[in-house]
């Protein structure tokens, strides 16, 4: 099983995509350069999504936004859990129950 490789720079990926668009075969590029042929094909598909030629997945911008939103949700959940624990601790320490939002 192969190990992981650090991400290839965006400019390198763009060059591989342009070579494929110019008629080069991903397998030939994989032999000449380091990334696998499948990685090169994935880059070409993603470039097609980004340019609007494909609609079978998220664009790079959408993927970045999704990752940012997932991080934000994770952070907000952690903060909510901390606040809930702090409120419960203060309620036990002071012997009072914090008032919640009224239902009326």
UniProtKB/TrEMBL annotation:
Pfam families: HTH_Tnp_1. Residues 46-65 are annotated as: Disordered. GO terms for biological process: DNA transposition. Gene3D superfamilies: Winged helix-like DNA-binding domain superfamily/Winged helix DNA-binding domain (1.10.10.10). GO terms for molecular function: DNA binding; transposase activity. This is Mobile element protein. It comes from uncultured Acetobacteraceae bacterium.
